[in-house]
Amino acid sequence: MFDLPLPALSAPFPAGFVPDIAHSTSDPSLPFSLTLPDRYPAATMSGEARPKIVGHFTTLAEAMSGAIAMAEELEPAAAPRMVAVLARDQRLVLAGAAANGAVAWSAPVISAAEARAVVMEASQLRAQASRAADWQEIDLATRLRQRADLLEARLVDPLWRAFAARALQIAA
Q: Rounded distance, CA 46 to CA 124, Å?
């Protein structure tokens, strides 16, 4: 899902730094984990990229609160960072972009047809970003990749779609 990470205009966290989030633990038996994408291009291109786990949580609400706490630690001028909440079995539960002390959660798709449309649109955006990068339009390529990442954040696992949609309704 996070094949090309969002670029950072300024480094929001030092290399290798994982923010300390209240109410999170390192217990992998807990059902939800808050993750950040692997930002190293070499790992991404080799297919070895794995999300960095920020913390494990007992409930989805705690994981969402942890993402907000992490967003509050970001530098105000930092580019948005994609965050994802994964279930214990590594299924995507919820994802969004963290910036300016808040998280813009992406609404999950509600059907397989909508998921296919999202995949097609994100693929087209990535192709446009590739062409823009070839033309040395780095800012445009960056914005197109960010839009593709936000679209792909909607591709919640089918088992979690209704639950994630309801959690967003309650949080709103």
A: 22
Quick one: which H or E segment has residue 67? helix 60-73
How many Å apart are CA 90 and CA 37, to the nearest integer?
A: 13
Neighbours of 111 (CB within 10 A): 10
* Tokens 């446009």, located at residue: 128
Longest CA–CA separation in the chain, Å: 47
| Calpha distance 27→90 (Å, rounded) | 15
58: DSSP letter: S
Please tell me the pTM assigned to this model. 0.78
Q: Token match 């279930």: residue?
A: 87
pLDDT grade for 25, boundaries at 50, 70 and 90: low
**pLDDT tens-digit series, residues 113-138:** 999 999 999 999 999 999 999 999 99
